[in-house]
Every structure is written in C-alpha cells, then in structure tokens.
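Please fill in the sequence for the structure shown.

STRUCTURE ENCODING:
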C-alpha cells in the first residue's frame, strides 16, 4: 500500500467522527434537507479525503439512482454516498455530488449529531431541496 495522502481543509470543516479527517467545508453544502436511515444528511458539492466504493442501483424517495458509498480515506468508515447517475430528469443536479450522513461526521464546531427516536427509517434521499 502506498503513502496515505490527506488534504487539510481551511475554514469551517465537517470531519469523520471516528478519526477527525477533514471531509468538506460548510460553504460546499448544497442542501441540508436530505435524510438517511440515521436521520439528517447533507448534500455537498465537493468532498475530500474519501474513497468511492462500487456503484449500485438504489431506489430512493426521489426515484432510482446509481450511487456509490463513500468511505473516509484514513479509517475506512462509511460516511455517506455519492450520486453517479440520477434516472429522473428533475434529479440530475445530484450527479457527481456527495451526501454525508450527519450521524457519521463531526460538525464544524466538533459537535456530534445524535439520532433521535424519530429518525427516518426508509430509503436514503432528499424530501426536497
């Protein structure tokens, strides 16, 4: 295995809750209206320090999408997913964008997000943007 290359971001940072690796900046959030099995999730225009897993078709609240899970490059934790292809015309804006699950990351102030008893229990996707 080669040398680990990690990008350090500057500004208000979202990071992996397990190892603290920088994942994205507040300014790269496109929407905070996404949901996953553990509660809230945010759509980001750009993420760093992740590896992309195998693509698969997933039926989500907004239709069929081709997605790939994304993992922290340092510790390997699953932190969300990346939209590869949106099959619905209205959802094309998601292509190439990534979703970080709030439960799996630390906020800019180092805060953790805890799931509530009312956490969404269904497919992962946005209700509205």
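FILLED IN BY: designer on duty
SEQUENCE:
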């Amino acid at each position: 295995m080669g040398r680990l290359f990690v990008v350090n971001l500057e500004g208000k940072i979202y990071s992996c809750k397990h190892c603290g690796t920088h994942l994205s900046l507040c300014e790269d959030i496109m929407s905070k209206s996404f949901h996953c099995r553990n509660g809230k999730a945010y759509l980001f225009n750009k993420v760093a320090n992740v590896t992309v897993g195998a693509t698969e078709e997933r039926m989500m609240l907004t239709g069929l999408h081709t997605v790939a899970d994304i993992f922290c490059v340092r510790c390997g934790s699953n932190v969300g997913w990346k939209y590869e292809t949106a099959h619905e015309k209205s959802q094309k804006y998601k292509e190439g964008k990534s979703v970080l699950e709030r439960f799996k990351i630390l906020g800019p102030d180092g805060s953790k997000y805890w799931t509530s008893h009312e956490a969404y229990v269904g497919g992962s996707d946005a209700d509205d943007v």
